[in-house]
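Action item from last week, closing it out:
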Amino acid sequence: MSSVDVVVMKGDKVSKKGSAELPAELFDVQVNIPLIHQVVVAQLAAARQGTAKAKTRGEVSGGGTKPYRQKGTGRARQGSIRAPQFTGGGVVHGPVPRDYSQRTPKKMIAAALRGALSDRARDGRVHVVEKFVDGDKPSTKAALNVLAAATEPGKVLVVVERADELTWLSLRNVQHVHLIAADQLNAYDVLCSDAVVFTQGALDAFVAGAPQGKSVKAVATSTEAEQEVEA
């Protein structure tokens, strides 16, 4: 189990005080890159609308009359001006509405998230703040000060509690910040961000609700692997 400093805001002052524990079963597991790739591809596929549609020659209006007689013109015989070779004709093997979603077991999704978080944690890119705003009113300026003290500039994934309205209102319009609730955390958003910043409450909620059992080949922690070698 590793720990990170907690950024604390009091009034206008921002400092690092105390530490937060990052459980090894969530933040120090062996990373399975093919598994993460499969889960991310499935997530992006599920986000596709699948509404693309092209009309076939049977669906295009017009073309019911033979354009010219069968013989004697010296031209190739044609039965309809809505055939695929004509402008305005139908499309051969065009797209049709379909469902792009893939079946992905929950254990695979959870394992991919643990692997992505572990990768960020090993690089020192997982951070914890006590809160972003001190007071009862949202403040983007104050929240950005806390964020700057917690991590380096870049694209940041901020994980908060659903009830933390002050943080939502303070950071929702910041271009380089992506806000997400603790129960919606996923491998894709983690990998798309340079750093992950948890509020203390969001980290506690995530640790309490995340499945921590070993599954899908490569979620054994490095600590457990070392213990097996020593034994």
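Closing note: The chain is about 35% helix and 15% strand.
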